[in-house]
Write a structure and sequence with these properties.
Blueprint lengths: L2 E7 L8 H16 L2 E7 L29 H10 L2 E7 L7 H9 L30 E7 L10 H11 L5 E5 L2 H7 L2 H20 L4 H8 L5 H20 L7
Parallel strand pairs: 1-2, 1-3, 3-4, 4-5
Helix pairs in contact: 1-6, 6-7
Length: 249
């Protein structure tokens, strides 16, 4: 039986997401070099009701959310069954997009009930998984508009450490990504090729070596070139606004 890859796309742009461009390439590499099948779920296409904060999933209906009239129950089961879960999202205000956060709140039943323990100091997850699947892997793939990924991703990584455990997931964080996808010329195809190769490496080893991770996450532009590109981008956007043009996702 083929191993299952579940891609959870947190971008409201769905398949047009810049981050999904590189995520799709990574998955392509995994499919070409491993015995996998893949499914992509666009969070913004799902019916996801907000968490009620009732904590029933930790007590009265332990392990199950009391809301059963939307798409979260089915997605939760897909997460449980997946061998590799890839969470793909752009960085929004130093965090994950709102649609993805709302889904994450609803997936609280996947975590063990909190019973007053301190957060582990050894890097273990704060709660631990309720439905433990041996060998299950988690990958975060995210693009941002910043020059670098240091510090701007600290909130996301801290939250991920608490959920998955420090070192229990792979974070692929890419600076300047949307600008590169939109304005990168030949860089775009070279980047896509590197992500296909990285996916192939992950399929074979279930990890990425340091050199590979550096190759796929290094800034595509120098600082000065990037500032010039952004100045032109925003000048064009301001002009569109003056003409009454509105961008659609």
């Amino acid at each position: 039986m083929k191993k299952r890859i579940l891609v959870v796309n947190g971008s409201p742009h769905r398949e047009k997401s810049s981050t999904m461009v590189i995520t799709d390439c990574f998955v392509k590499g995994m499919l070409e070099c491993g015995d996998y099948e893949a499914e992509t779920v666009h969070v913004s296409s799902l019916n996801v009701k907000p968490c009620l904060g009732c904590l029933s999933c930790w007590g009265r209906s332990e392990g199950e959310c009391v809301i059963n009239t939307d798409d979260v129950y089915e997605l939760k089961n897909k997460v449980i069954k997946a061998d590799v879960v890839i969470i793909s999202f752009p960085l929004y205000v130093f965090g994950i997009p709102g649609q993805l956060k709302m889904l994450l709140d609803r997936l609280l039943p996947l975590m063990n009930t909190y019973r007053g323990q301190y957060v582990p100091k050894d890097g273990a997850p704060a709660h631990g998984p309720r439905y433990n699947k041996p060998g299950q892997k988690f990958i975060l793939i995210s693009g941002c508009a910043y020059v670098e990924t240091e510090e701007v991703y600290d909130p996301v990584l801290k939250q991920s450490d608490l959920i998955f455990g420090k070192g229990n997931y792979t974070a692929i964080l890419c600076p300047q990504l949307k600008t590169m996808i939109d304005n990168g010329g030949g860089r775009v195809e070279r980047t896509k090729e590197r992500f296909v190769m990285a996916g192939a490496e992950y399929a074979e080893t279930l990890s990425l070596c340091e050199n590979t991770l550096k190759a796929i996450t290094r800034p595509p532009f120098s600082h000065e070139v990037y500032k010039t590109i952004l100045s032109n981008v925003w000048a064009k956007e301001i002009e569109k606004g003056r003409k009454g043009e509105i961008s659609e996702p």
